Amino acid sequence: MTDRYAVIGHPVAHSQSPGIHAMFAAQTGEDIAYGRLLAPVDGFAEWVKAFIAEGGRGVNVTLPFKLEAYELADEVSERARQARAANTLSFSGKKISADNTDGIGLVRDIEINLEFELKNKRVLLMGAGGAARGVLLPLLEARPARLIIANRTVERAIQLARSVRRQPAAAHMEVSACAFDDLPGQRFELVINATSSSLSDELPPLPDDLFVAGALAYDMMYGKGLTSFLAYAEARNVERLADGLGMLVEQAAESFMIWRGVRPDTQPVMLALRKS
Ligand code: ATR
Q1: pLDDT of residue 201
Q2: Could you confirm whether 121 is annotated as catalytic?
């Protein structure tokens, strides 16, 4: 019998996950069907339970339900616990297990697809909301030399940095927080935009000399062409620019792996999405 999965969110019509998982299934020969669930904003738990009752095996969770997904679960992975959010739920009988594959998706895109090794690099993470929190632990586990979190509201950055200091991954490195005003004079090999500023074509106030030669500028946003952050980086001669499409496909592959025990090849899927 075909196993059923879905992406659940509000809104959800824009989600590329059904197409991505259909390509993974065709490639691996896994017999799955993957749809969309548009849950009402106050109806997440109810919709998940109804999907389980219909025989659903798992869901990907998108905005605004990632926090609720984490809270609904009976068991959670360490990376979901650190993120306090889940994007992947698996159902076994009535038991709900939660994971968060966003961070590992980002790290795999950076290290494997973009061939940029994080070890010993100086990394700037811009933003301290859910998107930044979701990727922080896997980033630290890749052992950069130091990681600085910069945020408009500096208190949120300080809290986020504090939340990981006790993690074994943070034991031998500097994790610190600052405001954008404190950035002048500091330079990085990798700058990741995890703020939602690209949505409104805005840009945090960044200095001109943020990047060392050969640096990578990464915007977790995708589908908007060159975001304001990537345009800013390009104007400062940064040659390596990446949007979040690779991360989107890699987080989906990690979810597929959790559910099916098979890792799909992400390259042809990324190519297909870039073409369309
Ligand atoms: P998400 O889940 O997308 O991270 P969020 O939790 O609302 O959403 O967080 C949005 C992030 O983008 C925050 O870091 C926010 O900064 P504040 O904490 O100061 O609000 C940041 N952000 C949004 N618009 C921004 C802008 N125009 N300039 C700088 N930072 C911005």
Answers
A1: 86
A2: no
Q: Can you give the pLDDT at residue 7?
A: 98
List ligand 1's pocket residues with C-beta within 6 A: 127-132, 151-153, 156, 195-197, 202, 204
Residue 18 CA to ligand 1 centre (angstroms): 27
Ramachandran region of residue 194, left (φ > 0), alpha (ψ -120 to 50) or beta?
A: alpha
User: What domains lie within the chain, and their CATH numbers?
Assistant: 3-100 (3.40.50.10860), 103-246 (3.40.50.720)
Distance CA 233, CA 112 (A): 22
Mean pLDDT of the chain: 96
CA of 65 to the centre of ligand 1 (A): 17
Nearest CA to ligand 1 atom 14: 127
Tokens of 18: 């059904």
pLDDT digit string (tens) for 186-222? 999 999 999 999 888 899 999 999 999 999 999 999 9
Distance 270 CA to ligand 1 centre (A): 27
Of 49, 66, 94, 275, catalytic? 66
Is residue 64 a contact partner of residue 52, using CB atoms and an 8 Å limit? Answer: no
pLDDT given for residue 94 in this prediction? 87
Return the residue whose CA atom lies nearest to atom 24 of ligand 1: 197
Report helix, strand or coil for 14.
coil
The answer for residues whose C-beta is within 8 angstroms of residue 142's C-beta and 6 or more apart is 107, 111, 118, 119
pLDDT tens per residue, range 156-195: 999 999 999 888 888 888 899 999 999 999 999 999 999 9
Helix (H, G, I), strand (E, B) or coil at 115: coil
| Integer Cα distance of 62 and 197 in angstroms | 19
Is residue 86 within 8 A of residue 100, CB to CB? The reply is yes
Q: What is the pTM of this model?
A: 0.96
